[in-house]
Amino acid sequence: MAGPMNVAVMLVLIMGTGFASGLDPNFYSRSCPNVVQIVATIVNRHLKQDVTIAAPLVRLFFHDCFVEGCDASVLIVSPNKTAERDATPNFSLSQFDLIDEIKSALERTCPGTVSCADILALAARDAVLQTGGPTWAVELGRRDGLKSSDFDATTHLPSSRSDAQALINSFASNRLSIRDLVTLSGAHTFGKTHCSFVGRRLYDFTNNGGIDPTLNTTYAMSLKKQCTAPVNPNTIVLLDPSTPNRFDNIYFKELLQNQGIFSSDSALVLDPRTKVFVTEYANNEDSFRDQFGIAMIKMGRIGVLTGQQGQIRKRCDIVNTLF
């Protein structure tokens, strides 16, 4: 296992990337100086009770940032079920209650100060750190958005069936590089999915049915034992069966053995533009850990609202104008 991030890399994360307009790791140093500690304490307490909540917290942040930017729009509840969280790609999102708990604690300490968007960014970092991953200086100062659309989520979130070009295009539209794409895909080092996202690759990949030929045969047979036909969409399967609750580079080693659970995972080794980074991270865990923090900082800058834009929600699930 790789050791702690060295001082030089930490300086890169804090200084070398530069701050996005209006964002700064010290944004709340006067208005809410304990914000980082409060978020970390609550996340850590829940992780000790159930380590499997780590991956969903990272996923929440990703699904938020790729739709309307990192503005906590994924947290909004719609009475008529037309918000982002009502979109099909977001049906399996979870840990909304944990984010609400953090928000309530911060409202008691620093009312009307800390955005839900910043809570998502901090919680994702803590989830990675507390499961063996790296740390990074989370830029803060985001404000919360007023819009949340299921259509936007369906349109902008990359599909688990995407090929490499589609993934590259999706990330490029958010000013993220091919390296960023592979790096952030490494979040599949932990977590789980439903068999409904896997069944096609196991039973109906071609017109004549059958297994996706890009899957390792032994791995495919193991998945078929878990996702038996007819596929039960509620059955759960691990993304990384070797170390499912630990942030490490095993995901990339498994990709090189054609053991990516999604088509979008397998795509990373089928295209030389992405495979080069998969190979790098499989062979060098320190490189993956260092780059992950940098990529998370870059993702956290997508479409941010700052200054007088948006608002600081009183509750994360409802915009203030409806509260």
Return Rg in Å.
19 Å
Which overall shape is indicated by the principal axes computed on the Cα atoms? globular
Number of strands: 2
Order of helices and strands: HHHHHHHHEHHEHHHH
- Termini separation comes to 47 Å
And the CATH topology of the largest domain? Peroxidase, domain 1
What fraction, in percent, of the residue positions are helical? Answer: 40-55%
The number of distinct structural domains comes to: 2
Quaternary organization: single chain
Query: CATH class of the largest domain, please?
Result: Mainly Alpha
The CATH architecture category of the largest domain equals: Orthogonal Bundle
Strand order of the largest sheet: 1-2
Number of H- or I-type helical stretches: 14
Mean pLDDT: 92
Strand content: under 5%
Decide which structural class fits the backbone: mainly alpha
The description of the largest β-sheet is: 2 strands, antiparallel
Unreliable stretches (pLDDT < 50, length at least 5) are 1-19
